[in-house]
Design a protein that fits this description.
By secondary structure, the protein is of the alpha/beta class. It contains eleven helices and twelve strands. Helix content is 30%, strand content 17%. Helix 1 runs parallel beside helix 2 and helix 3 packs parallel to helix 5. The chain binds S-adenosylmethionine and iron/sulfur cluster.
Amino acid sequence: MKDAFGRKINYLRISVTDLCNLRCKYCMPEEGISKVHHEDVLSIEEIEEIVKVFVSLGVNKIRITGGEPLVRNGIIEIVRRIGNLDGVQDLAMTTNGVLLKKYAQDLKSVGLNRVNISLDTLNEEKYAYITRGGKLKNVLDGIETARKVGLTPIKINIVLIGGFNEDEIEDFIMLTKKEDIDVRFIELMPIGESIKLESEYYVSNQLILDKVPELIKVEREDISSPAVYYKLPNSKGKVGIINPISCKFCEYCNRIRLTAQGKLKLCLHSNEEIDLKASLRNGEDIKEIILESINQKPESHNLESGKYVSKNMNQIGG
Ligand code: SAM
Ligand code: SF4
């Protein structure tokens, strides 16, 4: 399926829950979020039904995210059902990794191809601080288990936060030297909880190239990927740089999002949502609704305008 600007839309990111077992300072309020009524969240069957329609329209790349996808009841069954659909070529998950040791083997067995793990620091105390109580060891064990069972290539996502983790840039990059792990630095985006933090803690990813000038640019494999990749000489893994603020990649955007409450989001940075759950429950033809909606996908986001998305990342499916 193509949008009004001729972009081929083949990538769906599905948030399976708003809930999370961590409280990252830039993503969720300390007190957590008010629980959504069970009936307002897409059931496993509804997720499967909606995803089937997307796949019939040409979506072949799916990422499961949240909130924390591994706290969703029935997550293994959700992955199994999506993995069983003909036409899904790449099925990945973004997770904080806390429960990965427990679930990695089952996820692999039911068809998950790979995981991206979010980890902003390699220091135990700093990890507990930024996640408000998380234990670093759980994530490191999760990464190890994911590697053992073959949920690869593993990508580690790091949000760069001023005064917090700039001093760890080199340490993260060194992980790519001996291991086939990609580390990807993401700029802090002004969304929900982080709108108030962004002006103070935003650091441009350019700092990475300034700090590690030996990085060599790697030829782009996937034009729609927001990451520009670099490599240390002779390293096994790559270093990705994602600049949603200082460098826009809207022209090649191939992605859409489905929230845990069944709302279709055409752009991460827009408050516009299309209620697919209501349409599904009313017996409407969601294929038609999706096709019409895709035509309204905005050409680009405009963060300079100061119009930010009010929901937190955990509610959108980052
Ligand atoms: N809980 C899972 C995790 O942390 O990987 C999946 C959901 S989380 C919302 C997805 C990603 O969004 C994480 O890598 C997180 O660091 C990132 N994120 C959350 N808020 C952000 C913000 N304001 N700016 C940039 N990235 C953000
Ligand atoms: Fe949870 Fe992921 Fe948000 Fe952290 S970034 S609070 S792990 S949803």
